[in-house]
Amino acid sequence: xxxxxxxxxxxxxxxxxxxxxxxxxxxxxxxxxxxxxxxxxxxxxxxxxxxxxxxxxxxxxxxxxxxxxxxxxxxxxxxxxxxxxxxxxxxxxxxxxxxxxxxxxxxxxxxxxxxxxxxxxxxxxxxxxxxxxxxxxxxxxxxxxxxxxxxxxxxxxxxxxxxxxxxxxxxxxxxxxxxxxxxxxxxxxxxxxxxxxxxxxxxxxxxxxxxxxxxxxxxxxxxxxxxxxxxxxxxxxxxxxxxxxxxxxxxxxxx
Length: 255
Hints:
By secondary structure, this protein is of the alpha+beta class. The chain has a single domain (12-253), classed as 3-Layer(aba) Sandwich (L-fuculose-1-phosphate Aldolase). Helices cover 38% and strands 14% of the residues. It contains eight helices and eight strands. The protein has an eight-stranded mixed β-sheet with strand order 4-3-2-1-5-8-7-6, sandwiched between helices. The longest helix has 23 residues, at 177-199. It is globular and about 50 Å long. 44% of the residues are buried. Mean pLDDT is 88; it is low at 1-6.
């Protein structure tokens, strides 16, 4: 995991506002797939997790578009449908007490790369920032609908931040909304870079393995300050976009 700490002292309302904005940041960075995909935030009172309700695209999510789901999949608060793949979140949260946010999405480059018989390399910075943090779920079994499947995915993820799911998409996680969302943005950009390099017909290579080890010349670890800087940048981009396109902002965030 990157060098980040959980967000303490923030209200549920405030966190859901940030979580909604994170959905929309991901929408601006290639993670829209109709109404599919979802983020979840661990409930601070231990009741389960707050999950984007079904039927909305990432770009449509406002702070009221979340339901509270317990670890057995029961909806205990909020209106709207529950995504079928809720076990992705429940089982990662069960397995990883350090994780407070989980993202599952289907960005096109990561979905394509998940089908390839290759591992992600550090073609550009985004790939380097994910060094040693990507797992590969090679089972092509459609949606993760059961607790057993979710547990299997969580086992493959292990202690890493990112798992590419064969013929499906990607799941990322983190201690904070920013860390989990940045991992999702980075993996899509890294997959795009590697697919482009592989299709170029030029010879290419990533950093040497030794240089990607902790302390290596190519190693790029994110600390608290870098995550804050990068996430502030994406927040500014979102604000600029929604200022220029006011109709794009969800109704329950327009006030």
